[in-house]
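During the reporting period the student researcher (J.K.) took over the structure-prediction task from the postdoctoral fellow and processed the backlog of single-chain submissions. One of the processed entries is reproduced below for the supervisory committee.
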Amino acid sequence: MTKLFQLSNDLEVNNSAHILYFFEDHNSYLNNMIAYMKAGIERNHHLLIIENTYLFNEAEKKINQLFPNEAKNFIHYIDNYFFYRCYGDFHIHSIVEHFSEILTPFLNEKMNIRTWAHVEWKEQDDISSKLEEFEHLADCSVNESGLMSVCAYSASDVSASLQTAMMKSHEYLMTDQEFVRSSLYRK
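J.K. obtained the following structure tokens:
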């Protein structure tokens, strides 16, 4: 049976959802990440948070105020610098394989898990096509694993053409104030 979660007044999603988030405002971003974590913890979901150290430290201040110590055991943090950049350039297949290795213990134990990944990269040639391919592979992985997954990007770091292309590999689109079904999504 597929469980539905209401994420806005007009939209419900099931357990397996690939969400593209283009953020512009630092505070809205943190508030949305905390709300996502809170909703997961309320449903006994483990949360894999792939975030930069600065923003996670900011979120952790709120986490410490909102969640009891037992709930914090459901939050698993990975530094996104090492997650995305430790391969030199943005090496798509290594990142996807690494992500799978991290998820395997949770999935083997039949734990509910949701992910939040702030995607960042260092300057390099052909990054747009790499990100587009990466998100296509991530969509396949999210659907196969039955995950709810947010892929967050700073809107100022992504061209309009790349934003449009990535909407084809995410069923849902989120901004600081909106959450809608992507009309461009192709499963």
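The committee noted the following: The chain has one domain: 4-181.
J.K. will present the remaining backlog at the next meeting.
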